[in-house]
Design goal:
The complex is a heterodimer of chains A (about 725) and B (about 250). Chain A is an alpha+beta fold. Among the domains of chain A are: about 190 residues, PurM-like C-terminal domain (Phosphoribosyl-aminoimidazole Synthetase, Chain A, domain 2, Alpha-Beta Complex), CATH 3.90.650; about 140 residues, Phosphoribosyl-aminoimidazole Synthetase, Chain A, domain 2 (Alpha-Beta Complex), CATH 3.90.650. Chain A is about 35% helix and about 25% strand. Chain A is built from 23 helices and 28 strands. In chain A, a hairpin with an 8-residue loop joins strand 27 and strand 28. Chain A is globular. With about 250 residues, chain B is of the alpha/beta class. Chain B has one domain: Class I glutamine amidotransferase (GATase) domain (Rossmann fold). Chain B is about 20% helix and about 25% strand. Chain B contains five helices and eleven strands. Chain B has a nine-stranded mixed β-sheet with strand order 2-1-3-4-11-10-9-6-7, sandwiched between helices. Classes of the chains: A alpha+beta (about 725), B alpha/beta (about 250). Chains A and B meet through helix 8, helix 11 and strand 14 of A and helix 1 and strand 6 of B.
C-alpha cells in the first residue's frame, strides 16, 4: 500500500496534497507525524492522525485553557476526561447512587443534515453515559437556531428537522427528554447549535471505566453493534472544517446514520451484560465508538490503561463489500460500542448480544465479535489482509497536542445588542411547548416534572427516595455583554433553574460553542468564556464534571455564532416531596424577587423558608422584565382552573437571573430573605394582569396565555 | 395459585419496566418475557403489551409485531378468554392483530391507531381518560366505578383511531369504546383529544371484554412522585388495581 509522501516535500506541496485527500492536518502537523514515525505514514495512519489530532478529539487549542475550570468537589467521583463525569446523588439502603452525565455538541452535522445530525447527537451522548456502566435515565438539549419566522427559510428547515431528529431518536430508545431550552437569533443563521446532554444512574461500586483494566494484557477487544459501513467517514476531521454552503453536499457522507431501534436493543442487552459481569465480579472496560471510529475508540481505551493494541480489520463485519481499510478503521458508523473482556467471559457476553438479544436478527450484520487484543507493549497495530496498515506508538497517536494561538482583545468580537423585547409572543419568550411536546418526557414512568412544566426537569429513581433535577443555561441574548459575562451568567442561570424546583445544585457540565480559534478575536472569546465559567463555578463552589468544546461554528461569510457557553446543572433532593412548583397557588399572595447575585445563600434561605411552610411556589426569573417571569408562573397553572390575576408593584428589569417566590404574607418576604428581596407583585382572583406603569393596559391572563402559546405552534405545530 | 402475567418485550419495546412496576405494585404476579423466550408464553394466564416502537413501527405502528410469534401466543390466549391489555404501542399491536375491536377475522384489522392529526407529529401531553362503558363490560375495567376518570400521559405519534364510517359505528354501538379523552373535571369535548382520534377514543375493548387496547399511559402517572402537585388525588394506579381485580375473577 503506498504511503502518503511527506518526507522531502515542500510546504506548498504538502498543503496541496493534504487538501487533495480531504485531510485537515496542517503542514507542521504532517511533518511532526513523519518525524515521529521516522517514515511516511500509510493511508490508514494518515487518516488516523487526522481524526485523533483534530480539535474534535484532541481539544488542541482549548485543553490548556480548560484547566482553569474547577473540576473537583466533595460529590465528584469522576471529573472531566472520561466519556462522562460522575457525581454522587445520595445513599439509599446503604448503597451509594451516582449520576453519570455527559454534554456534547452536534452542531456541524445538524446544520448539514438536521434530522440525522441531531438524532446521532442524541445517540452518541447516550452511549457516552451507557459505557460508564450506567442505566441511561434522561436526556436534555439546548438548541440555538436562526430566524425561523420565514416559512421558506433554510433556518426553519434546520430547526424543524433538528426537533424531529431529537424526538424520533429519543422517543424510540425510551429515555425521557426532561430539560433544555431553545432560542432563536440571527447569529445562528449559518450555524445552528445542538447541544445534547444525557444522564444515567449507577451505584458507585459498579462504575465501569473507559479504559483497559489493570492486568488486561491479552484480553479480547470486542466490537458490539451495527455492521460497519461507509457512513461517517471523515466526521471528526469534518467538524474541524468551517462550513461552506457548496460543500454541504460533499460533507453529507461524513454524517452518520441513526438507528434508534437497534440502539434500544443494544442498550437493553448491555444492561444484561452489566448484570452478568457484576454477578461474577468481572472487571472490564467499556467505551463508546465516536469520533475516529474503531481506531479512535480502541486506541483511547487501551492507551488510557497504559497498553497497546492489535486490531484485525478482517474480523470487523461490514455491510458492504470492498470497503477500504481506512474507512473500516476510522469511519463513524453509529450504534457501536467496544468491550475489553477477559477471555473467559467473552463467550458469555457474545451470547447475550448475539443470541438472547439476537442482534443479527434485529439488524442485518449487527453483532458482537472479537476484533483484536490488548497488547503489553505500547504499539498500536492494525492488520488488514496480509498487510500491517498501521503500526504506531499509541501515546504518540492519542497524546495531547497543543496549539498556542494568538489572542486579540475580546471587545473586537462583540456581536451587537438585542433590543429588550417586552412581549410574551417574541419567539425567545414564547412557549416552547410546540417543540418540547414532541419529546417523550415521561417514558420510564419516573418523571416528576416533565420538560417545559418548570425551569428544570425532575426525575425520581424508582424504588429509592432519591430524585434529581436537570437544567440548562446560556441565553444567547446575553452574548452582547461579552463572552466572559455571558458565560458567568450561563452558570447562574442553570444553577438558579435547578434551585427554582427546590433542588440542591451539585455539579455542572459545559459545552463551549465558538467560532474559528485561528481568528484571534474568536479565540479570545473562548478563553474569556472559560474565565467566566471558572469564576462563577468557584463562587458557587461547584465543579464541572463533563464538557465539550465545539469550534469553527461559522459560515462561509466568516461570521461566527454568538459566543455560546452552554451550561447544564444537576441538582439533588433528599426526598421528592421537596420538589417546588412554579405554578401560582394563591389568589392572595405576594411575589418576592431574590436576585441571583444576592449575598444570601439562596438555597439555604429557600430551605429555611420552606421549613416554615412559607413558600407556595417558586419561579425562575430570566433577565429582563420581571413581569414576564411573573406571568410564566401564572401560565404554569393547570388549564381550566381559575386563573389567578397578577398586579405588578414595580416595573423592574432584572439584570441578572433570579428567583420569584410566592409567599402568603407580605411581611414574610423580607423576614425570610432579607434586604435584597423586593416585593414585585401581588396576586388576586381577577385573572387579569395589571402592570405597575399606568401606561400599561391591563390584559386578561387567558389572552396573554394564548399569545404566548401561538407563535411557535405555527412553526413547529 | 396466583394467575401469572407476562409483560411482553418485542424488539423496540421501551416501557416494559414501569409497566411491570405498576403491575407488581398492584400485587399482580407479573414478569417480563423477552422475544427470544416466546415459546414460554403459553404458560401464562394473561398478557400485557407495553409501549414502545416494536419493530421500529415499520409500515405502521404495530403492523409487524402483530405478525410476530409472540403475538401468536397472545391471539391464542385471547381466544381462550385470557385477559390481554395493550398500552400505547401494545394497543396498536392489538388493533393490527384484529383482536380489538375484534369485529373482523384475526389479523384483518377493521380499525387502526394511526398518525396524529392535524400535526402529524408525536405528542407528549398529560390527559385524562373517562370510562365510557359499563365497568363490567370489560374484565379489565370491572373494578372501576362508572365513568371513572383516570390520569395518564399521551405519548405517541400514531394514536388517532381511524376506520370506515361503518366500522366506527360498530365500535360506538357495539360497546367497544371503553375510554374517551376527557378534561380534569370529567367534561368531554374535542379540545380534550390530543390527537384527533375518531369518537374521542382513548381505548377500545373486544366483544368478549377480555382484551383492552389503551393509547395513553396510566403507568406514567401512577405514583405520588409522578403528580407531586396534584390536588385531586387521582392516580393511574387505579387502573392497575382494576386489572388485578379482574385477574382474580378470571
Amino acid at each position: 500500500m503506498p504511503n502518503f509522501g511527506i518526507i522531502g516535500k515542500s510546504e506548498a506541496e504538502l498543503s496541496a496534497a493534504a487538501a487533495g485527500v480531504g485531510v485537515a492536518l496542517r503542514v507542521d502537523e504532517l511533518q511532526r507525524i513523519a518525524h515521529g514515525l521516522g517514515r511516511d505514514p500509510t493511508t490508514v495512519e494518515l487518516y488516523a492522525f487526522d481524526a485523533q489530532w483534530s480539535e474534535h478529539c484532541s481539544y488542541k487549542s482549548s485543553r490548556h485553557h480548560l484547566r482553569k475550570l474547577p473540576t473537583q468537589g466533595p460529590d465528584v467521583v469522576i471529573g472531566p476526561g472520561q466519556d462522562a463525569g460522575v457525581v454522587r446523588l445520595g445513599e439509599w439502603n446503604g448503597e451509594r447512587y451516582c449520576i453519570v452525565i455527559a454534554h456534547e455538541s452536534h452542531n456541524h452535522p445538524s446544520q448539514v443534515v438536521p434530522f440525522e445530525g441531531a438524532a446521532t447527537g442524541v445517540g452518541g451522548i447516550v452511549r457516552d453515559v451507557l459505557c460508564m456502566g450506567a442505566e441511561v435515565v434522561a436526556i436534555a438539549d439546548a438548541l440555538r437556531f436562526g430566524n425561523v419566522t420565514d416559512v421558506e427559510s433554510h433556518q426553519r428547515y434546520v430547526a424543524t428537522g433538528v426537533v424531529d431528529g431529537i424526538s424520533s431518536y429519543g422517543n424510540a430508545i425510551g429515555v425521557p427528554n426532561i430539560a433544555g431550552d431553545a432560542y432563536f437569533d440571527d447569529g445562528f443563521s449559518d450555524n445552528c447549535l445542538v447541544n445534547v446532554i444525557a444522564l444515567g444512574i449507577v451505584k458507585e461500586h459498579q462504575i465501569i471505566e473507559s479504559k483497559a483494566p489493570p492486568g488486561s494484557e491479552g484480553w479480547d477487544i470486542v466490537l458490539v453493534g451495527k455492521a460497519t459501513d461507509a457512513s461517517g467517514f471523515g466526521g471528526a476531521a469534518f467538524s474541524s472544517l468551517a462550513l461552506d454552503a457548496k460543500d454541504a453536499q460533499a460533507n453529507k457522507s461524513a454524517v452518520q446514520v441513526p438507528d434508534p431501534f437497534l440502539k434500544n436493543v443494544i442498550m437493553r442487552a448491555s444492561y444484561r451484560v452489566f448484570e452478568y459481569l457484576r454477578e461474577r465480579e468481572i472487571f472490564a472496560g467499556f467505551k463508546d465508538l465516536g469520533a475516529g471510529g474503531i481506531m479512535g475508540c480502541t486506541a483511547e481505551i487501551c492507551a488510557a490503561g497504559g497498553y497497546g493494541a492489535i486490531i484485525d480489520l478482517d474480523e470487523v463485519v461490514t455491510s458492504q463489500e470492498g470497503l477500504p481499510p481506512a474507512v473500516i478503521a476510522i469511519g463513524e458508523t453509529q450504534e457501536r460500542l467496544l468491550w475489553i473482556l477477559p477471555p473467559h467471559a467473552t463467550a458469555d457476553v457474545l451470547q447475550v448480544y448475539n443470541r438472547e438479544f439476537s442482534l443479527p436478527e434485529v439488524s442485518k450484520g449487527a453483532c458482537a465479535r472479537v476484533i483484536g487484543a490488548v497488547q503489553a507493549n505500547k504499539r498500536y497495530i492494525m492488520r488488514f489482509g496480509k498487510e500491517r496498515v498501521m503500526d504506531v506508538d499509541i501515546d504518540f497517536l492519542t497524546g495531547a497536542i497543543k496549539d498556542e494561538l494568538p489572542l486579540a482583545n475580546e471587545a473586537q468580537a462583540s456581536v451587537g445588542r438585542e433590543p429588550v423585547v417586552q412581549a410574551v409572543s417574541h419567539p425567545n419568550r414564547a412557549s416552547r411547548d410546540p417543540l418540547f411536546k414532541q419529546y417523550d418526557a415521561v417514558v420510564r414512568g419516573a418523571t416528576v416534572i416533565a420538560r417545559g412544566h418548570a425551569a428544570a426537569g425532575v426525575m425520581m429513581i424508582p424504588n429509592t427516595g432519591l430524585a434529581f433535577a436537570l437544567s440548562t443555561g446560556g441565553n444567547p441574548g446575553h452574548a452582547w455583554l461579552g463572552a466572559e459575562a455571558a458565560a458567568e451568567l450561563a452558570v447562574h442561570e442553570a444553577v438558579l433553574k435547578v434551585m427554582s424546583v427546590g433542588a440542591r445544585p451539585v455539579a455542572l457540565t459545559d459545552c463551549l460553542n465558538f467560532g474559528n480559534p485561528k481568528k484571534p478575536a474568536h479565540y479570545a472569546q473562548l478563553v474569556s468564556a472559560i474565565d467566566g465559567l471558572a469564576r462563577a463555578a468557584r463562587e458557587l463552589n461547584l465543579a464541572f464534571v463533563s464538557g465539550n468544546v465545539s469550534l469553527y461554528n461559522e459560515g462561509a461569510s466568516g461570521k461566527a455564532v454568538p459566543a455560546s457557553a452552554i451550561v447544564s446543572c444537576i441538582g439533588t433532593f433528599a426526598d421528592f416531596s421537596e420538589v417546588l412548583n412554579p405554578a401560582l397557588q394563591s389568589t392572595r399572595s405576594f411575589l418576592f424577587l431574590l436576585p441571583g447575585d444576592s449575598k444570601l445563600d439562596i438555597f439555604d434561605a429557600l430551605t429555611r423558608a420552606r421549613a416554615k411552610g412559607a413558600v407556595l411556589a417558586c419561579g425562575y426569573v430570566e433577565p429582563g422584565p420581571v413581569s414576564l417571569s411573573a406571568l410564566r408562573m401564572a401560565f404554569a397553572q393547570d388549564d381550566r382552573s381559575q386563573r389567578i390575576g397578577i398586579r405588578m408593584e414595580r416595573s423592574a428589569l432584572a439584570d441578572r437571573p433570579g428567583l420569584l417566590v410566592e409567599v402568603q404574607q407580605r411581611d414574610l418576604g423580607r423576614e425570610l430573605f432579607g434586604e435584597d428581596a423586593t416585593l414585585e407583585a401581588r396576586t388576586d382572583p381577577s385573572g387579569i394582569f395589571v402592570g405597575a406603569d399606568a401606561a400599561f393596559d391591563s390584559v386578561s391572563i387567558e389572552e396573554l396565555l394564548a399569545a404566548w402559546r401561538a407563535p411557535l405552534a405555527k412553526i413547529f405545530g | 395459585m396466583n394467575a401469572k402475567v407476562a409483560v411482553l418485550v418485542y424488539p423496540g419495546t421501551n416501557s416494559e419496566n414501569e409497566t411491570l412496576r405498576a403491575l407488581l405494585d398492584a400485587e399482580v404476579d407479573a414478569e417480563l418475557v423477552h422475544w427470544s423466550n416466546a415459546a414460554t408464553l403459553a404458560n401464562f394466564d394473561a398478557y400485557v403489551l407495553p409501549g414502545g416502537f416494536a419493530y421500529e413501527d415499520r409500515i405502521r405502528a404495530g403492523a409487524i409485531a402483530a405478525h410476530d410469534r409472540m403475538t401468536d401466543a397472545v391471539i391464542e390466549g385471547a381466544q381462550k378468554g385470557k385477559m390481554v391489555l395493550g398500552i400505547c404501542n401494545g394497543a396498536q399491536v392489538l388493533l393490527e392483530a384484529g383482536l380489538v375491536p375484534g369485529t373482523g377475522p384475526v389479523r384483518r384489522p377493521t380499525a387502526a391507531f394511526t398518525k396524529n392529526a392535524p400535526s402529524g407529529k408525536f405528542v407528549c401531553k398529560h390527559v385524562y381518560v373517562k370510562l365510557n362503558i359499563a365497568p363490567q363490560r370489560c374484565a379489565i375495567t370491572a373494578g372501576l366505578p362508572g365513568e371513572a376518570l383516570i390520569p395518564a400521559w399521551a405519548a405517541h405519534g400514531e394514536g388517532r383511531l381511524a376506520g370506515s364510517a361503518d366500522h366506527l359505528d360498530e365500535i360506538s354501538h357495539g360497546g367497544h369504546l371503553a375510554f374517551v379523552y376527557a378534561h380534569a373535571d370529567g367534561s368531554v369535548d374535542d379540545a380534550a383529544v390530543p390527537n384527533g382520534s375518531a369518537l374521542g377514543a382513548a381505548a377500545l375493548t373486544n366483544s368478549q371484554g377480555n382484551v383492552l387496547a389503551i393509547m395513553p399511559h396510566p403507568e406514567r402517572d401512577a405514583w405520588t412522585f409522578n403528580h407531586p402537585f396534584s390536588r385531586d388525588g387521582r392516580s393511574g394506579m387505579t387502573f392497575f388495581h382494576s386489572f388485578a381485580k379482574g385477574l382474580k375473577q378470571q
